[in-house]
Fold:
Amino acid sequence: MTDEFPYDVFLSHSTKDKGVVREVAQRLRKDGVKVWFDEWVLKPGDSIPAKIEEGLERSRVLVLCMSANAFGSGWAQLESGTFRFRSPLNKERRFLPLRLDAFLSRKFRSSTR
Structure:
């Protein structure tokens, strides 16, 4: 990805999915992807809405981590809406849904064996 955007991806997720999204973020970073992940960017005292808006502006791709939790999360809905409607033609940026429910279900099944 080009240097035009400081971040390759912005991970939008529900706080309830934080653990599995952290694993995704770590894997992406290990593979050389520049990731905007709230735990790595937000600092005490930051304006969360302002930092999220800045992160969205500075990221080429929004990865919406979709799960039953995300659909109930106001933050995830705000982030995806803000990002998608910024560029109606979506030529500069991409929106990628990432379905977590199947992964979470598999992980749960393997932990109960």
